[in-house]
Amino acid sequence: MPAGVRRAVQGDVDAASAVLADAFADYPWTRWTVESRCHAERVEGLQRLYMEQIALPYGEVWVACDDGDTVMSVAVWMLPNSVVPGGVLSTVGAAQATLEGVRHAASVKAEECVARLRPTRPHYYLGVVGTRRNRQRQGLGTAVLTPILDRADRENEPVFLETSASENVRFYLGLGFVAISETDIPDGGPHVWAMMRDRLTTRS
Known about the structure:
Helices cover 45% and strands 22% of the residues. The protein is of the alpha+beta class. The chain has a single domain (4-202), classed as Aminopeptidase (3-Layer(aba) Sandwich), CATH 3.40.630.30.
């Protein structure tokens, strides 16, 4: 059954945050960067924070829904021209530290590590995509990513992401991404793949 895909609005934030918390319940990156106590609630709070304060105002959020318009999959994007004011980043950073709890210092170090992998030229950045675990492998992830991937192709803009799950690497390879670099987060953190989808180079 095909998914209904649309751009998210403020009223979708609670449902979208819950979907991402469910999708990332055992994800290596969040397990490393977010305190284990009340882990799911913390992850949900972080997703809500990012969507409300950064992605909806300065990027785009897309959702794939079932026939009843219940959110089943979510993709959170920053755009090639996205500029987030410094004051917003400071406010978000303080709230993020509280939600990450005792893992906040590890999160900061991990972010510094992966930031070095990101391209300096303008690009679409996939911050996160996730599907409810009981609806995975049904095409929802591909469906929710397609609007921005198609737009990037039309604009000849690259798309970049990071992932810390090997099964995700296989998924993204199927969408035309290539792994451009890898790293291990220090002190026993997860392995991270940096992946790029560039119509001019990977589809020529």
